[in-house]
């Protein structure tokens, strides 16, 4: 069961939402705490400001993108 949890990520949940417009409770359960928290925050913003348009839901995790950007900046310094 632990293996399944590590395979289902934020990006998978977003893709599922964009394709079907729904996500199940089991899928929420399979997300890591960080991915779940971020997804729920994004869903709130998406519902408020994007009127629930599926194409407006961010495909990439902002936290992961920030880490990647920081790493890229560090690599440029070296």
Report what the structure shows:
- Helix content is 72%, strand content 0%.
- It has 78 residues and is an all-alpha fold.
- It has one domain.
- The chain is globular, with a radius of gyration of 14 Å.
- The termini are far apart.
- Residues 1-5 have low confidence and may be disordered.
Write a concise keyword list for the protein shown above:
single chain, 78 residues, mainly alpha, 5 helices, 0% strand, disordered N terminus
Question: Radius of gyration, Cα only, in angstroms?
Answer: 14 Å
Shape call:
globular
Give the low-pLDDT segments: 1-5
Number of strands: 0
Helix share, percent: over 70%
Quick check: average pLDDT? 78
Span of the ends, CA to CA = 41 Å
Helix and strand element order: HHHHH
Biggest sheet record: none
Approximate strand percentage: under 5%
What's the layout of helices and strands?
Layout: H1 2-7, H2 10-20, H3 25-30, H4 33-49, H5 62-77
Report a brief summary of the structure.
This protein is mainly α. It is 72% helix and 0% strand.
């Amino acid at each position: 069961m632990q293996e399944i949890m590590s395979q289902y990520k934020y990006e998978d949940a977003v893709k599922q939402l964009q394709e079907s417009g729904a996500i199940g409770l089991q899928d929420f359960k399979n997300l890591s705490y960080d991915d779940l928290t971020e997804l729920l925050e994004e869903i709130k913003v998406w519902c408020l400001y994007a009127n629930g348009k599926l194409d407006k839901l961010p495909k990439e995790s902002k936290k992961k993108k920030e880490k990647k950007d920081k790493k890229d900046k560090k690599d440029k310094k070296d």
